[in-house]
């Protein structure tokens, strides 16, 4: 098989989205489901949220599987792989979306807080990618898409830990893209600006209004707008795009 050419049609491929029980992850799952793809909805604790996303995806005729795993654990990711292999749903497309944020002064950050944010955002991306990239290499085709953040590019005051984790994800993306390009596997990151999700729950109305005033587009992004870009990067015809950090941010950072 030629590198970068899939052995099966796009609509028959399988996508794994981590952290897909709500927000951007759920929107990504729903976007892929509209073409009838096999969709794996990963979650950690939000069982009902994952089921709600699954029900929404199944309305489009997609084959859907929900799966729980702590992505900070190599053992749990290995069990996740075994489950997907049992269902003949090893992914052609991996979307590393699972993440947590932290808001506060660096002087107040404990080691536990640091390890938690790094564990979910960065270690989880590393372990999940390492587990699922080998079948892509063997097939000489695959898509790895990491959901990063604008703060991983520009940094943000009072979000040092989160910015560091996402900056690491961006570097991981660029380096791995070079490593996997000869195998026909692309690796890209989507780094959104402010998105109207539960991650914004820590901001009050005045803080949200101030943020919107800073954005040339004058509003936050909707999750489905981010999902559309992830979907585009997963398409077979996007095979020459790799190692890129693309930031849909309404003109906030140019």
By CATH, the superfamily comes out as NAD(P)-binding Rossmann-like Domain
> How much helicity do the residues have?
40-55%
Global outline:
globular
How many separate domains? 1
Total of DSSP H or I helical runs spanning 4+ residues = 8
Question: What is the CATH third-level topology name?
Answer: Rossmann fold
Largest sheet: 7 strands, parallel
Q: Specify the CATH architecture.
A: 3-Layer(aba) Sandwich
Mean of pLDDT: 95
Structural class per helix/strand content? alpha/beta
Question: Strand order within the widest sheet?
Answer: 3-2-1-4-5-6-7
Order of helices and strands: EHEHEHEHEHHEHHE
Low-confidence stretches: none
- Percentage of residues in DSSP E strands: 5-15%
Radius of gyration: 17 Å
Number of strands: 7
Distance between the termini: 39 Å
CATH class: Alpha Beta
What does this structure look like?
The chain has a 7-stranded parallel β-sheet with strand order 3-2-1-4-5-6-7, with helices on both faces. The chain has 8 helices and 7 strands, in the order E-H-E-H-E-H-E-H-E-H-H-E-H-H-E. The chain is globular, with a radius of gyration of 17 Å. Helix 1 crosses helix 8, helix 3 runs parallel beside helix 4 and helix 4 packs parallel to helix 6 (160-180). The protein is α/β, with parallel strands linked by helices and 254 residues long. It has a single domain, classed as NAD(P)-binding Rossmann-like Domain (Rossmann fold, 3-Layer(aba) Sandwich), CATH 3.40.50.720.
């Amino acid at each position: 098989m030629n590198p970068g050419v899939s052995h099966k049609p796009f609509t028959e491929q399988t996508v794994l989205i981590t952290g897909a029980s709500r927000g951007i992850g759920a929107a990504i799952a729903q976007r892929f489901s509209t073409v009838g793809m096999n969709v794996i909805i990963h979650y950690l604790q939000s069982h009902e949220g994952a089921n709600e996303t699954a029900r929404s995806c199944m309305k489009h005729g997609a084959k859907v599987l929900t799966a729980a795993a702590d992505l900070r654990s190599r053992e749990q990711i290995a069990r996740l792989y075994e489950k997907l292999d049992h269902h003949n749903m090893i992914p052609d497309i991996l979307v590393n979306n699972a993440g947590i944020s932290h808001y506060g002064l660096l002087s107040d950050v404990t080691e536990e807080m640091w390890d938690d944010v790094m564990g979910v955002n960065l270690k989880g991306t590393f372990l999940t990618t390492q587990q699922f990239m080998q079948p892509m290499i063997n097939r000489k085709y695959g898509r790895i898409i990491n959901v990063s953040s604008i703060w991983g590019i520009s940094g943000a005051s009072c979000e040092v830990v989160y910015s560091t984790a996402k900056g690491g994800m961006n570097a991981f993306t660029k380096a791995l893209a070079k490593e996997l390009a000869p195998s026909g596997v692309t690796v890209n990151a989507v780094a959104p600006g402010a998105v109207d999700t539960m991650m914004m729950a820590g901001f009050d109305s005045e803080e949200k209004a101030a943020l919107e005033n800073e954005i040339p587009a004058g509003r936050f992004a909707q999750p489905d707008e981010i999902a559309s870009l992830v979907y585009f990067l997963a398409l077979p015809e996007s095979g020459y795009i790799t190692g890129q950090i693309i930031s849909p941010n309404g003109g906030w950072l140019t």
